[in-house]
Amino acid sequence: MTQRVRFDWAGRPVDIEYIWAGVDDPAAPLLVVLHEGLGSVSMWRDFPDRLARACGVRALVYSRPGYGRSTPRAADERWGLDFMHRQAQQVLPALLQALGVRGRYALLGHSDGGSIALLHAAHAPQRVNACIVMAPHILVEEFGLKSIREARVQYEQGGLRAPLSRHHDDVDSAFYGWNDIWLAPDFPQWQITSELKNITAPVLAIQGEDDPYGTMAQIDGIANGLPGTQLVKLPGCGHSPHRDQPESVIRACQAFLAPLLHQETHA
């Protein structure tokens, strides 16, 4: 059962849909879970709960503004190049404050959520004690833009709209918020490689070798900027490792988080 919390953001009140998953103990280590560019709480299905229980943590899973059952984008709202920075530096801190989260926590982000996790870890290094990213973006590749253009065709002419509508109250808000900015003429200049140096938490980066939205340049670039990064490259895996190879992802996360769990990660 999802819950809602309200706070002010971008000049108006927003309601954020969220759930707690995993270990049912507010004193347990906390893992904050950030969804992909078309994701939501419900699109994760049971993966956050399975992962959190396997790792012995409590997970906070939420839908960003514009997604799921959270407040949709305003009719005239268009995201800018800084949309992921705003999620990392404004929305996530406001959510944690509204929920009374104190102390340190780990992050798990997928795709755009992985980029937001990296940006948040760079913005609040004193709060983040571990960062796991799956298929993150640190720069824009034409390889990935081709797939994003194809997604627009599938949404407008194919069968993508119907399944997405099951997970979003305003499916156009979710789709076009993501797709419009990624296909904006100036978006190819977007990158966050210069900000990686501010991350002090250990990082685990996971990517499928058959990911249509990004090459290994994404996670290899993280390792170049943060030499201690642990990389997991999964053969026969696409853009969603937690759906394509959930057991491999859970094992990798367990091994990564085990020595880091009890470093003041609690809500």
TrEMBL record:
Family matches, as InterPro entries: AB_hydrolase_1, AB_hydrolase_fold, AB_hydrolase_sf
Organism in which the protein naturally occurs: Ideonella aquatica
Signal peptide extent: none
Transmembrane segments: none
One term under GO cellular component: membrane
Keyword Cell division annotated: no
Protein name: Alpha/beta hydrolase
AB hydrolase-1 domain location: 31-251
Annotated keywords: Hydrolase
Keyword Protein biosynthesis found: no
Chain coiled-coil ranges: none
Record-linked PANTHER family: HYDROLASE, PUTATIVE (AFU_ORTHOLOGUE AFUA_2G14860)-RELATED, MONOACYLGLYCEROL LIPASE
GO MF annotation terms: hydrolase activity
Domain of life: Bacteria
